[in-house]
Structure formats: C-alpha cells, structure tokens
Amino acid sequence: MALQAEPLLQVKDLKQYFKVNRNYTVKAVDGISFDIYPGETYGLVGESGSGKSTIGRSVIRLHDITDGEINFNGQDISGKLKSETNSMLRTKMQMIFQDPMASLN
User: Fold this and answer.
1) What is the pLDDT of residues 10-30, one digit of tens each?
2) What is the DSSP letter of 6?
3) 41 by DSSP, 3-state: which?
C-alpha cells in the first residue's frame, strides 16, 4: 500500500468579498475548496468574471482573504503573515496570468 502524499496547497472554503460601499458587497469568490498535490498540474477554468484571477491573487496573498483557510507546504498562510512567511511565499509561489493576446485561437 503506497503512502498518500500530503497536499502542497490546500484551499478550504475560500471567500473573497469586496465592499463597494456601505450598502453593497461583491462576493467575488464564495466558498471554493481544492487541493494540489506535489507534481500535479492544476488548471482553474471558468467564464470571464467568474473569480479565477481573484482566487489566484487570494492564494498568493495579494489580497487579504475574507474567510477560509489556505495551507501551503503544511503551513497556514490564511491570517496575517510574518515577514519571513511573506518572503518564503514570494520565492516559492507564483501565478502565471493568461495573456489573451498571446493565446492561440
């Protein structure tokens, strides 16, 4: 029986809301969960405006998340980040944005 590898990245019930004004809040991401294991390729697909880039920005901590949990390499990176954790993330994790002008039809 082979040992199951631990996920490299775990996202649990991620919520990313943006307050537009005191009466209106955009729920850009509302409760997504996924795991990415070592050596695995993961693609996030959806319509324009469905929250793909917001999920990516939240996972790499360009946004402070509204709610949920993000674990990277066994370390909780959901809350306020210490400077050494922030430095580690900047060297170990990155997002490659789609460039629609460079893609093939």
Assistant:
1) 999 999 999 999 999 999 999
2) P
3) coil
